[in-house]
Amino acid sequence: MRYLLAIHTDENAESKASPEEQTKVWQAYMKYTDDLKNAGVLIGGEPLLPTAHGAKVRVRNGKRSVVDGPFSEAKEVLGGYYVLQCKSLQEASEWAARCPGASTGTLEVRQIMDMPQQ
Prior knowledge:
This protein is α+β, with helices and mostly antiparallel strands. It is built from 3 helices and 6 strands. The chain has helices spanning 11-15, 19-39, 89-98, and strands spanning 2-9, 42-47, 55-60, 63-68, 77-85, 106-111. The longest helix is centred in the N-terminal third of the chain and has 21 residues, at 19-39. It starts with a strand and ends in a 7-residue tail after the last strand.
């Protein structure tokens, strides 16, 4: 089964980290990614740029609304993701607990729905 690990982080705190702290976090993510690869569970994943580089798009009553970032009022925002192939939610949750982001933010673990082939 495929699982999405959505990494929710406090981008304000991240932006205030020293270059040394940022390097340490980046190295922890690289090791974690290597561990996922070596275990054969990694399908993919990417870090995301801060919300200032994004937009929210809504369509209501046929009218499009685009709001440029930063747009989140939440303390934690989606900072990146991994897609894993795991045997169970428990296994995916165990991998999520090992993610560097779990110690400072929140990891949301969601099973990916299998779509019928056309």
